[in-house]
């Protein structure tokens, strides 16, 4: 019988018959990434080498069609692999999130020459980082960053924040408005003159994701790298959010694995415990079991939701507009229905793990606190507090999930009490850290 690690580890069957052969290509890399994760966390070592190794191995080209040199992975296959990578180090998943979204944009682009050119770059290992989100008094749905023509040349100026993965990227996909108000997206090389990514992310979680500031000071832009900010997959917001949820599940699996290992290795036990060895203490085993159950259950949710996004992708490829509209609405709903519970279970697990261990488990070198810090940070994107309301509004009133999320300042005259389900924003709230 062929070995199936997904099943043997108790995580359930993978998303496809070929999943094990696909995953085995990368599991050695995942193991290496996991082995050095605590050192990176405690010493604040950015995972440049880890991200580059994944790109060189083809992980960042998983969704590129086989005929273009990629693996042609399905969305469920991709998200299951992101769970496995997230178990190794959630920072690394977050660092390539924008790149994965860029690839989805290529897959759905109708510009064949553009697609072929960038598919080749992605397969060669090029990485693309984000340049969309801005902080401060920015109007919702607008960029303060400007793309203008001066003496026949295109020039980019502005400042972005939540530039997740920019320090690891070769290119940055930057959103800007022109002088006439047109919204553009431009690709600039990360090391181009005037592009200044900063290592200034100081959030308490996801510390190694390169999610800080990037300045663009009189950056010359190749006209061939300018496009209108309108080419987005129908499942754009669902995709980005599901990356967060897959990352959280990976954290849940890491919580389960590291706690079980720590319990197994403990030699000291409490006099008021239930066994001479902690590993035989029924109450401790119950705690560890709950941690594992949380990881298992949330993983099942994410893989089920990934199928809903795959249906949107398939409808788009078939050119079936009614089916596409319906599939997209359901995918956004499934994301809303999933988000609160996934984060609730993993956030709880990240605190509960200490109930299975002694006070020594709080020592800084173990970095067990990273799990709560990281998942709590992830849960702040596309705030989960709104999702149950969205699901409830659908159940009671048939109201679809909002078409797009945006963040920024709203003029009081323009403020509304409920999301506008018909408008497209320049950036979902969560396409950041």
TrEMBL record:
Signal peptide (UniProt feature, chain positions): none
GO cellular component entries: cytoplasm
BP-aspect Gene Ontology terms: fatty acid beta-oxidation using acyl-CoA dehydrogenase
Domain Acyl-CoA dehydrogenase/oxidase N-terminal: 33-126
Family annotation (Gene3D superfamilies): Acyl-CoA dehydrogenase/oxidase, N-terminal domain, Butyryl-CoA Dehydrogenase, subunit A, domain 2, Butyryl-CoA Dehydrogenase, subunit A, domain 3
GO molecular function: acyl-CoA dehydrogenase activity; flavin adenine dinucleotide binding; oxidoreductase activity, acting on paired donors, with incorporation or reduction of molecular oxygen, reduced flavin or flavoprotein as one donor, and incorporation of one atom of oxygen
Entry keyword NAD: no
Residue stretches making up the Acyl-CoA dehydrogenase C-terminal domain: 243-381
Domain Acyl-CoA oxidase/dehydrogenase middle residues, every copy: 144-219
Keywords for the protein's UniProt record, in alphabetical order: Flavoprotein, Monooxygenase, Oxidoreductase
Family the UniProt entry places it in: Belongs to the HpaH/HsaA monooxygenase family.
Protein name (database record): Monooxygenase
């Amino acid at each position: 019988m062929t070995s199936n690690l997904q099943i043997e580890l108790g995580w359930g069957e993978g998303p496809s018959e070929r999943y094990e052969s696909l995953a085995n290509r990368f599991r050695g890399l995942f193991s290496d990434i996991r082995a050095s994760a605590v050192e990176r966390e405690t010493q604040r070592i950015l995972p440049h080498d880890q991200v580059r190794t994944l790109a060189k191995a083809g992980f960042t080209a998983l969704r590129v069609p086989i005929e273009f040199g990629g693996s042609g992975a399905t969305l469920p296959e991709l998200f299951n692999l992101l769970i496995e990578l997230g178990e190794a180090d959630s920072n690394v998943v977050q660092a390539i999130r924008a790149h994965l979204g860029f690839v989805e944009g290529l897959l759905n682009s109708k510009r064949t020459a553009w697609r072929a050119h960038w598919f080749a770059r992605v397969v060669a290992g090029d990485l693309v980082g984000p340049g969309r989100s801005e902080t401060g008094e920015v109007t919702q749905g607008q960029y303060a960053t400007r793309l203008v023509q001066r003496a026949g040349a295109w020039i980019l100026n502005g400042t972005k924040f939540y530039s997740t993965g920019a320090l690891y990227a070769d290119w940055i996909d930057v959103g800007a408005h022109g002088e006439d108000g047109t919204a553009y997206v431009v690709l600039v090389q990360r090391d181009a003159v005037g592009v200044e990514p900063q290592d200034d992310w100081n959030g308490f979680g996801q510390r190694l994701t390169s999610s800080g500031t990037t300045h663009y000071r009189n950056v010359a832009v190749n006209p061939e790298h300018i496009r209108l900010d309108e080419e987005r997959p129908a499942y754009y917001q669902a995709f980005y959010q599901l990356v967060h949820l897959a990352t959280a599940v990976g954290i849940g699996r890491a919580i389960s694995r590291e706690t079980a290992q720590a319990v197994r290795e403990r030699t000291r036990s409490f006099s008021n415990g239930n066994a001479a060895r902690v590993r035989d203490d029924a109450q401790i085993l119950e705690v560890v079991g709950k941690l594992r159950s949380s990881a298992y259950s949330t993983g099942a949710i994410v893989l089920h939701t990934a199928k809903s996004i795959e249906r949107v992708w398939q409808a788009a490829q078939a050119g079936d507009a009614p089916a596409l509209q319906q599939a997209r609405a359901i995918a956004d709903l499934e994301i809303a229905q999933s988000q609160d519970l996934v984060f609730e279970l993993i956030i709880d697990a990240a605190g509960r793990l200490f109930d299975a261990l002694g006070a020594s488990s709080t020592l800084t070198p173990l970095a067990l606190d990273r799990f709560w810090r990281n998942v709590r940070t992830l849960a702040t994107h596309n705030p989960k507090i709104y999702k149950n309301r969205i699901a409830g509004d659908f159940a009671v009133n048939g109201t679809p999930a909002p078409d797009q999320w945006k963040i920024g300042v709203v003029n009081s005259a323009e403020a509304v009490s409920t999301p506008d389900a018909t408008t497209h924003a320049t950036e979902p709230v969560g396409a950041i850290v």
